[in-house]
Amino acid sequence: MQVMQPEMYQVAAMVGVLTLLILAVACGNLGALMLARAVQREREIGIRIAIGANAARILRQLFTESLLLATAGAVAGLLLGCAVLQIALSRLDAPKWLSATPDLKVLLFTVAVTFLSTIFFGLTPALQIARERQHKTTARHILVAAQVAGSCVLLIVASLLVRAAHHALYTDPGFGYERLVSIDAQLAQHGYSAGAAKVYLDRLQERLSAVPGVRSVSLVLLPPLGHTVSRQRRQIEGRTVMLYPNWVSPGFFQTMQIPLLLGRTWHPGEKNAVMVSDSFARRQWPGQNPLEKRIGDGKLNDRVVGVVGDAHVNALNDDDAVEEYWPAVYDQMPGMVVMVRTAGSVEGLPSIAKSISESLDPKLFPEIRPIKSLYADNVRTIEMTAGAITLAGFVALVLAGVGLIGLVSFTVSQKTNEIAIRTALGASGRNVLQSLLRQFFWPVGLGLLIGTVATAVSSHVLRHALYGISNLDLVGYAGAIVFLSVTLTVATLLPARRALHLNLSKALHYE
To answer: Rounded distance, CA 246 to CA 223, Å?
Structure first.
């Protein structure tokens, strides 16, 4: 059995990775601005070199300026981050041991990022000027492509998670969760033997079945949407599929309202029998009758006796709904959980179940949980993930847009004389605009391609955060790419169109 990592840790890890992507986009933005500023200072640097300043002195000056800028930004970011984290912790009613005060590791990370940003994005333009390199346009285009690629990854991930959250809100999970309650007496933790546990569970089920309004009672080893989930990897049709096995009593499917599609449920005490979900049967034996088929590699005697509807019992993110159900065995009794379905509201059942449990054994304190609340918690986790990633994608989009506007504006300012001359000679505004935009077509297109491919290649890590959609969902990819393309097109057109409205006489004398 493999215990799943809590969803909140997955959310935190994903947000952490995407935050690093935002940091990379922001650093690329800064690098582009530093490069543009360095090019603008070529005349100043040339004069300094002409009057005797050596390359080392020039580099030291430029490095110092970059270091001061990076340090100021790091201090401001650290203070802002602590303030925002403090507000978030207070709003979320976080444990007291969680503190927004940065520790030594955070401070060292900030210092390292500051120093690396200074070297890469401050010293590189300085070296370019000192060595009088002439290929500055290539460097700018690389930065544009990197920014667009990072933003593309963030927006695609955000799009997928938003669609997953929407799907979770409006899709039936395959079982009736609204009038369902789980009762975990935690018999194993209290030292119950298998025999004693069976006696207790039989009496508990009998007493619960007699409660007015209770329609069905059954047992399950792994309760729906619980903290512990058993997973197995198996090859089906040449691909690895995650299986979700469970061990249940014969009345489990009636209690869960999972429809029986084919065959039967097992009889009480029956062994070497298994029931599978419809998705499992179709993938394992396409076009065949799954009844009496053997599970596994042929060495097992377990045969399929029934097929039930697809239900995301173990986890909402089980998009394949590949679940298999085995008869509960005697040795599992101390770990079994009672499932109860009511005809109406479940509000009064917890107190009744607690009273019955105390009458059977006062030392037990059963954990009673309405499955409706567990379902809401799972959906809320997906919504939180989608919200955090959407915010990250929006920030990256703003950064990429601002950076692109800055680069285009700088390019336009460098070509003001050229634009004025071409306009004076009769060039149409459309031709001038196309000439300016053509320079950014390839880096933006390359960035979109790299970002899309990178997301597709690494999208398997999103598998457990998505519900009901594929990690290669076409709508999610297309929506994010179109939105980013439109935004970047507008960001490129604004300064380019502004250049066409310059005063012609002033533009001809512009320097």
So the answer is: 9
DSSP secondary structure string for all residues of 227-241: S----EEEEETTEEE
The encoded tokens of residue 416 equal: 């003001």
Rounded CA-CA distance 233/239 in Å is: 10
**H or E stretch covering 191:** none
Q: How far is CA 102 from the centre of its chain?
A: 25
pLDDT tens, residue by residue, 11-42: 566 666 667 767 766 766 666 666 666 666 66
One domain for residues 407 and 309: no
At residue 268, what is the residue type?
A: P
With residue 246 as reference, give the H or E element that holds it: strand 239-248
Q: How far is CA 211 from CA 32, 307, 338, 347, 481, in A?
A: 71, 31, 14, 14, 56
In one-letter notation, the amino acid at residue 460 is H
pTM metric for this prediction: 0.62
Low-confidence ranges of the chain (pLDDT < 50): 1-7, 132-135, 298
- Which token pair is 67? 């270091």
Statement to judge: residues 196 and 114 lie in one domain? no
350 and 229 together in one domain: yes
Structure tokens given for 374: 């567990």
Do 221 and 265 belong to one domain? yes
